[in-house]
Amino acid sequence: xxxxxxxxxxxxxxxxxxxxxxxxxxxxxxxxxxxxxxxxxxxx
Length: 44
Fold this sequence. Notes:
Distance between the termini: 22 Å
Number of domains: 1
């Protein structure tokens, strides 16, 4: 499973059940994808 986080997007790649489990996990912490993106720190 890979999660690529950019400035304005999140790209999830992996098996369907892995992506669903990850989305359920983050849905408990963040109501919107925008909130999820704002909580991520981008390392350059």
